[in-house]
Design a protein that fits this description.
The structure is a homotetramer. Chain A is of the alpha/beta class. Chain A is about 35% helix and about 25% strand. The first copy, chain A, has 13 helices and 16 strands. In chain A, the strands form two sheets. The first copy, chain A, has an eight-stranded parallel sheet with strand order 4-3-2-1-5-6-8-7, with helices on both faces. In chain A, strands 9, 10, 11, 12, 13, 14, 15 and 16 form an eight-stranded mixed sheet that branches. In chain A, helix 8 packs across helix 9 and helix 8 packs across helix 10. Chains in contact: A-B, A-C, A-D, B-C, B-D, C-D. Chains A and B meet through strand 9, strand 10, strand 11, strand 12 and helix 11 of A and strand 9, strand 10, strand 11, strand 12 and helix 11 of B.
């Protein structure tokens, strides 16, 4: 059966790329043929430590990478001859220059949420529009914030509960490993425009959503914290809303009463559960904070900005190749392979 | 005229108390007779450096304070015999024990927002309910978050614009000077309950407000950042809403386009303007972020949690004593003495 | 052979306890019989998720723990009847109350660095004094800072290079998961006394060390950063000093040139390498920062305060039980089982 | 006497420039003729609010500045025709391009520590080498870290106490107002080289110092924290060392016992004392932490990186113009005008 695995490459072994590589490697129906990058520092060296074949995206960089001790096995062009799908996780702006290269090589391509919808003409969240990606040559997995917004709002929509949604998104300021030139200190930085772009971005996946978002960066490095005020389409109880969330995939629960009272507790929890890199692929929703008053529901959840799009990317691989035609089946496979949960803890 | 000045004391020379003392000292119609405290550290020593008479709130502490070099001029009981009004800025919980002592001494008292409404039976925001405090023996100036909420929402109400308001309040985690046992690091901590208490607290001042708040602490030490989604009572433009805010007192404007793009910029701005302690007494509203879409207005502002209640406290002194019967006159006097602004900058 | 495994329990499933439990589970010659705790929150629930038997340290808490969904398998007293060694990782102060209980049960005990040397009369760092712990009934694994100090200074001593050492230790302020009441924000907090306690604490292990330390807490949550100025006992080159460190166990190298330029990069590196919980058990020394000028060597390294004492604790188990009499053999077994490194990266 | 005041201009109204402007304005023997800048944001607008004449350093920017509401009164070239001394506080690198312009205009110039010693051929700390700057056309006030190092080490040298000094400098990461692209988060970033540049920089002022420094950035935005280990040239007590510091200018004392236990407490203290912008111009030394053991003294102090060079800059103005020939007289004038202290508090 090994020859029937989907052959996948990852271009850009950074925050997202390394996690996509991890996730591809644990899917029984996929094979990670290699990753490609241009740098010679610890980031790429860890791919070597994990036994992943490394290619160079720029032939000019091959000597430098080899001099740094990285056994470069080929170029990105070589890699493209050997795979069906490439996941492009290069920095914003570079990806857009790569799409033609992938098309010419006859390789299907998946881009990340930093790129524009117009680059691919299709934006992807598995539970929302898997079917429309079947057989396409390219798609864009939307950003972490948008992915969580779509997951939760279509859960409400599918239960007939959603009228309109207003969200305030408190974003992490930079990544945990960044050591300079990107941090904010002892402040909050609101976005210059309200509404922020996440509302319209969610509409690239589900156009009919009535959603407005306000965003700001706060002085922490991991996980976004979303706060939502949703007007209900019909009278509903707290239990009705929770049931709607439970019925949808990739939303999992923790509780203040369990001591998960802040973003950093949940980061610890994921490490305690033995998850690779401490990742939380689910929307992490506080079950015991959610409340309904009159025709409104209020809730707050966390988004692991480094991890939440990983299962969507895995599903996108199956959708583009047509290897699995049913969204639910792909989601089930992905979630089982990663070990995703509905409740993080017993009790 | 000096004998006609309102004689004021401050009990508790901490974050709020020292600012009340500053503000009383610059009011032409008030005299700061003294402050009272129980500690011997740098906080009280700075009162000495500023030439303020210091009393001890606990006679037991007098020796310790004097040994530390603080020339204690008397006890709180002595002080009470010499003033008309005392502003109680002691830590939460202690204030409640003091109210009878003040009553017995025949001294009017003002408490801060950490105390319960039931302690005084009256909660105060100058522009909302000054008249109802006239001649009372005690009132409570509501908390920083509630003060800003009331100021902005009644501005909208008075312009006939307010239907309902939903706010997300991103609070500072601890005070800038706290060095231990109170901080949060690299996280956001949502409050355990939604709605949070600020909405009901605003209703202690203006019962008819339809307001719901969600609150969280972020990892910074100065200024709260409020994000509001307000449903309008009538069709209105962005300019209509700004005009409503401009017509109300103690809301001042800055702009992203001026480089004020975060909480810490505005802290710097206040210092640049030469304000004592870098204080911002106004609600600091981003004029160029506010926007109207359909029947909703979205806006964000900052609250200097250490300073915003100071002008309200000054007005409360005039209201309780009946020295000024018209809210607008008291507000005008306070604002002129402090140097409050409508626009922080030219242009 | 399974019946010959050392039977181990852990009392206190917190920051250190959970890591000791992990490490015991991967040692071929040890068996984790169970852990014991008193809380019912996510921390203990994750032990359940990992399949570890959980006991209650206080019988009174058993009902509460079971009500929270934790299948409590017995009490600490039950556990003590079934093990040879217990590793006490309870909070500071509680451990001291437990030692008699362990002695009465005839169980050897290991305490952590928060406890005093006088509690056990023996303080342990494997490479320094393994032999002196053989057959004892109890020992104390010294703190993270002291462990790193001893590891590095005896490496220099054993190479005949150490005259005197002066270190400035910039500590993390609180643990990454702490969400309140322990953090510091936007500040540095120096210890009240110079020299700080780490120098004398190192002398509980190696009395002859001429070492003085100065310590402060900075505003980050993970890893201590030590800066050392060491006067050399003989003329030596940079290469001589590096060779001395390479010859000693549990000091590993990274380089600024690889992009490891700050504490948080190395935290990311450990996660990238697939380490459980992202742990760094080694002293992480910057090879390319170390320099020698005249008779002094200067260097800086990181200490993962959550992880560095784990291998020492494992060795202490073997030393107390006498299962392995040679320090080098125990160290080699521990390090192989954990996957410890000399150079974190190729190159 | 007004016509005999030294006429001064400031080019660059940023962190340092605005403080130099403040300080010039309070010197009885100086007049601030104007400041010059190129930006139109809040920083320059506050100069307008303070009544300071603003020029444009680049004529091209004049329209933009005026459009923003800044009443530009002329160009930098105009300003140069009207002053004796210009203090250049432009960003690093730009200053070097300005020196010829100043020379051509016959205006004496003072640069800041971000510039190289070679630019001016003279580096300045008032108490160390005021005399050598008399009548020069230009000098460089050394950086905040170097200024504090020179102040404290020559205090020890002048008391015959200094043999050699080793310091670890924990720097603030970015300025309090910076909102993006410069911060570090939840980490410590050591400098790539040991020794760091501050030691050699101190030797540009006092060549004979035996001083080595190690530097790192920690995750806070205000004040550097220096930790020193100094080998004494003769037997001395703790009191001897304190007396040496007391005998030198611009070193002031606070105490842990007064509640000043961290960097942020002292920032609060300066605001409490009513200082403009909360500035601490003195080296802030913890009197009760300093200790002597054998032939070594250990101490720690704070450096307000935004303020400490201001009094040196004022003295440099007098030195270059020759207005005052005696260092002690200039220092005394500056310190009296600013309100500098020896002990921050009574007691």
């Amino acid at each position: 059966m090994a020859d029937q695995k989907i052959r996948v490459a990852v271009n850009g072994y950074g925050v997202i790329g390394k996690r996509v590589a991890d996730a591809v490697r644990v899917q029984p129906d996929m094979e990670l043929v290699g990753v490609s990058d241009v740098v010679s520092d610890y980031r790429v060296k860890t791919a070597v430590a994990l036994g992943i074949p490394v290619c160079t995206s720029l032939p000019d960089k091959q000597n430098e990478m080899q001099a740094a001790g990285i056994p470069v096995v080929g170029t990105l062009d070589n890699l493209l001859t050997d795979v069906e799908v490439i996941v492009d996780c290069t920095p914003k702006g570079i990806a857009a220059k790569n799409i033609d290269r992938y098309r010419e090589a006859g390789v299907k391509s998946i881009f990340q949420g930093g790129e524009k919808h117009s680059l691919t003409g299709h934006s992807f969240v598995a539970q929302a529009n898997y079917a429309s990606a079947l057989g396409r040559d390219t798609t864009r997995v939307v950003s972490c914030n948008t992915t969580s917004t779509v997951r939760t709002l279509i859960a409400l929509r599918d239960a007939g509960l959603l009228k309109k949604a207003r969200g305030v998104l408190i974003r992490r300021a930079t990544d945990p490993w960044e050591s300079d030139h990107s941090g904010i200190m002892n402040t909050v930085v609101p976005e210059e425009h309200i509404p922020s772009h996440q509302g319209p971005d969610a509409q690239t996946v589900v156009p009919e959503l009535d959603v407005v978002t306000i965003a700001a960066k706060a002085a922490h490095t991991q996980n976004h914290n979303h706060f939502w005020i949703v007007e209900l389409a019909r009278a509903a109880t707290r239990e009705d809303v929770l049931a709607a969330f439970r019925a949808a995939p990739r939303i999992a629960f923790f509780r203040m009463s369990e001591g998960i009272v802040a973003l950093n507790n949940s980061v610890e929890l994921m490490k305690d559960l033995g998850r690779p890199r401490g990742d939380m692929w689910e929307v992490g929703l506080w079950e015991d904070v959610l409340d309904v008053k009159g025709d409104e529901v209020y809730y707050t959840y966390q988004v692991d900005n480094q991890a939440i799009v990983i299962p969507e990317t895995i599903d996108a691989i199956r959708a583009l190749t047509g290897a699995v035609t049913d969204a639910r089946e792909s989601i089930a496979r992905t979630d089982a392979a990663l070990g995703m949960k509905r409740d993080f803890l017993v009790g």
